[in-house]
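Reading a protein record of the kind used here takes only a little practice. To see the layout at work, look at the sequence and tokens printed below.
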Amino acid sequence: MVLNMNRRRTFTILITLVVIAIAVYMVVSALSIKNSTGVLDINSSDPSATIAISANNSQSQYLGLNSVSVRLKPGAYLISAVDQSNTVTSAVTVSKGQTTTKNLNINEVKKTNSKNNSLLSKLPFTGPVSEYTINYNLNYNGKGQFTPVIIIGSTSPQAKQAALSWFQYDKFNLNDYKVEYQSLNPLPASYNYF
């Protein structure tokens, strides 16, 4: 019986030591993650705006609405706030052990969009059979102003030319804008368009 009690006591002590070791490991892991990352706080002026983030030209990840806080590895990120028809994008750098706060003023974008810019009011636009898309983004110039960047996505050189013809047909001068081109994957030949 005494031998049985000693086994129980030894087993209880062993289990207690294992639990303590696991707890210490979890605390050390949490501290090392906290010390090797930074915090990014993102706030939007529009409570209904969707907040997204991307890094190294990767696909954007949805973070939440209005205001979000996220722990990230140090590096450069592109963040955006989007409401029904307006987008504001900004580059931000996250530093190790630091909290970075970024305010995205989508209300400023709304003002810029409404300043009799007939081109932006027609976008986004998708060409026939989705061969090309024309959209825009507004970049903050650091001086309290947003400038439009026209984004033309096309499935082929011919589709790119068709997109450029759309501008000429509607009498828009692309020289008035910064333009970025993107390649789009064409729809499969078997795709049912209707």
Remarks:
- Residues 2-36 form the longest helix (35 residues).
- The CA atoms of residues 1 and 119 lie 90 Å apart.
- The helical segments are 2-36, 106-114, 118-121, 157-169.
